Amino acid sequence: MKDGVALAADVYRPAGEGPWPVLLMRQPYGKEIASTVVLAHPSWYARHGYVVVVQDVRGMGASEGDFDCLRQELSDGAETVAWAKVLDDANGKIGLYGFSYQAITQYLALAGGAKVDAMAPAMGSFAPAKDWAYEGGALRYAGMVGWAQQMALLKAAHDGDRETHSALSALGGLEETARYLSGRPKLSHLKRWLDNAENDWDQVSPQRLLKGRALDIPVLHTGGWYDFMLEGTLAADRAFRTASPATAHLAIGPWTHMPWNGTIGGARMPEAETWSVDRANVAFFDFYLKNKGNPPPAFTLFDIGDRRWRTFDRWPATSQKTLALASGGLAATLVNDGRLADMAESTEGEDVLVSDPFRPAPLVGGHMGDPSGFADRATSDDRSDVAVYTTAPFAQEFTLCGPVRADITISTEAPAFDLVATLSLVTPSGSANVIQTGITRTKNTGSPVSVGLRAGFVTVPAGFSLRLSLQAAAWPAFSLHAQDPADAGEMDAKPLTLAIRHDASRLVISVLNEDTVHGA
Question: Residue 484 above 50 pLDDT?
Answer without folding.
Answer: no
